[in-house]
Task: structure prediction
Amino acid sequence: MRKKLIWIPFIFCIFLLSGCGTTEETKEPSKKMICESKATQGNVKMDLHYEVSYYKENVQKVETKEILTSNSTETLEGYQKTIQNIYKNYDGIDYYNYDIQLEGNTLTSTVSIDYEKVDTNKLLSVDSSTEQLIKNGKVKLEDIKKVYESVGATCTME
Result:
């Protein structure tokens, strides 16, 4: 069980970074970057999907969907409890939304962060490690792409 929980900090980092539309300042359409990864850790299959909306070099929104599948209910319940404990620190932060659902042998976690509207200082106060991404209240596309790729995701620009 301990080895399986090693993935949680990596997944959490991605959850945290975890947003599409038109930028209000420019009225020009956003572009998207899609990053995906599939992995198996022990008896847990992970299917990770990240959709990043951006304008020029700045991230506007991030939407993530992580699906963990296992025949072990105990393992999935362990992941669920750990993720819930992490996310409770973000309760009450506007424009940072998450949902965790355990149904049968599947745990699904979704996160949506609107970086154009969220109070990034509040994000930093919850987790100072986000300083590597949030600089002057903004998240740069290249920085978030590096994080996703560092955990094995393949990113494509649309």
Notes: Confidence is low (pLDDT under 50) at residues 1-26.
